[in-house]
Amino acid sequence: MESYPKGRIAISERPASMAAIAPRRKINFFGIVHACGGCGSEALGAVELLRSKGVSVRMIVPPSDPIIDRGNAAADYLRAIGVELAQYRPGLFNDCGVIVCLGEKKMFDLIREYNDRPRYIVYSDCMGTETDIEVEAHKDGLVDEFLFQSKRHADAVGPAIARRAHKAVTVRSGYKAFINTNSPYFPIRFKQDKPTDVFTAIKAGRDDADKWHPDTWRMFCGISAPNPTKVQVEIAGWGENASDKVGNPCLDGNMWRNQFNVTLHEHNHDVKWMSELYARSHVLVHILDYNCEEALGRVILEAQASGVVAITDKRGGPIDLIEHGATGFLCDAPDEASFYASECAFHDGLRRSIASQAYTRLVTEGHGSPESCWPWWADLLGKA
User: Fold this and answer.
1) 119, exposed or middle or buried, with CB in 10 Å at 0-12, 13-18, 19+?
2) I need a labelling partner for 106 at 20 to 30 A (CA). Which of 71, 124, 144, 309 fits?
3) Sign of CA dihedral 250, 253, 255, 259
4) What is the helix (H) or strand (E) element at residue 161, kind and residue range?
5) Helix/strand/coil (H, E, C) string of 194-237?
6) Is residue 96 exposed (0-12), middle (13-18) or buried (19+ Cβ within 10 Å)?
7) 361 has a pLDDT exceeding 90
């Protein structure tokens, strides 16, 4: 039987029928419905939290976006838990008290084109630097509040937007995300017991060149494990941009071909497949390009929720998510990542201890804790 560390909790008990709850207020989201990776899974976790509190939720997607069609698994699941789904039409935003936009910049174009402004707009992006679009939107009065997931992100990007826009900003740092470790749709489950005949190191992310360090393959090739344990590398989110950046180690002529065991998987929206990948993996090695600094690193939270030790860059949001040596590892270079992954392979007790501590903190005080995440949403409801 799988054992769980202390601190495992679930969201508030749901009644037999969500219709039995009389929603008090409504929160609107714009742009994201899919559940696998990035803002999509953040939106899903937040929606599940809001619905568990009896809050009405509407998800609005850009015009002609087919993602809300019947038969889309994520959209059908959202309908099943009482979420209203709508494609944007002119005038729809005027019917929104509060709208939370998770990085979908197309919203600003629609507001300008149709003079269609929600009463209160919260905008959040996962990038570590401000963008021209955000600055211009703030100048035009299209953002009431910027939400950043980490204090480091807020302290850097918020003032930068204010300086460039010559206009004060309302900035918050905190929880827009909620990892529901009991989600029936995205079944992430803590699993401390991993296979013993193979040590699996994974990388998960979208096909973006900035997500790839130039020394990625040397780093993974440097991971070792005690004989006869085999080291297996699995990549989720492989694509043309990654191949152009670091090369395909499975192709003839590549210098890393046959130097280590690696399987490349393209981006997969199948949440069951992703949860199974986490379940069989020991470490997540999430080292990015020198110039890329993440505000959060969603896969770090998913790894912690799954009993996978996260090894990542010592910069940006991950510094707020990981206590080095206790709940994961922070690195200045790929060689360090190879070393810490190998440490976990040779010292299973260390790996299990770190996985347990990371999970406990996640569900009791971090992005997996309803008690930590709810106050911001409750305050936001007051603006609806």
Assistant:
1) middle
2) 71
3) positive
4) helix 151-165
5) CCCCEEEEEEECCCCHHHCCCCHHHHHHCCCCCCCCEEEEEEEE
6) buried
7) yes
Q: Tell me the helix, strand and coil percentages in the chain, rounded to 5.
A: 40, 20, 45
Task: Please state, rounded to an integer, the average pLDDT across all residues of the chain.
Answer: 88
Contact 355, 309 (CB under 8 A): yes
Select the highest-mean-pLDDT range: 128-132, 155-159, 176-180, 239-243. 239-243
Rounded Cα distance between 157 and 147, Å, is 10
Confidence of residue 17 (pLDDT cuts 50, 70, 90): very low
d(CA 175, CA 159): 19
Chain position carrying tokens 């929160």:
27
Enumerate domains of the chain plus CATH numbers. Answer: 22-178+370-381 (3.40.50.2000), 198-365 (3.40.50.2000)
Rounded Cα distance between 292 and 214, Å, is: 12
Backbone angles phi, psi at 261, to 5 degrees: -90, 115
Q: Are 52 and 12 in contact (CB under 8 A)?
A: yes
State how far the Cα of 93 lies from the Cα of 119, in Å rounded to an integer: 8
From residue 173, how far is each of 37, 64, 150, 211, 218 by CA, in Å?
21, 33, 6, 23, 36
Neighbours of 366 (CB within 10 A): 22
Count Cβ atoms within 10 A of the Cβ of residue 60 and give its class: 0-12 exposed, 13-18 middle, 19 or more buried.
buried
Calpha distance 87→137 (Å, rounded): 22
Q: What is the pLDDT of residue 193?
A: 94
Single-letter residue type at 214:
P
CB 207 within 8 A of CB 325: no
Residue 159: strand, helix, or coil: helix
| 342-344-350-354 Cα dihedral, nearest 10 degrees | 130
**Residues paired with 108 in a beta bridge:** none
With 80 as the cut, is the pLDDT of residue 125 above it? Answer: no
Neighbours of 328 (CB within 10 A): 26
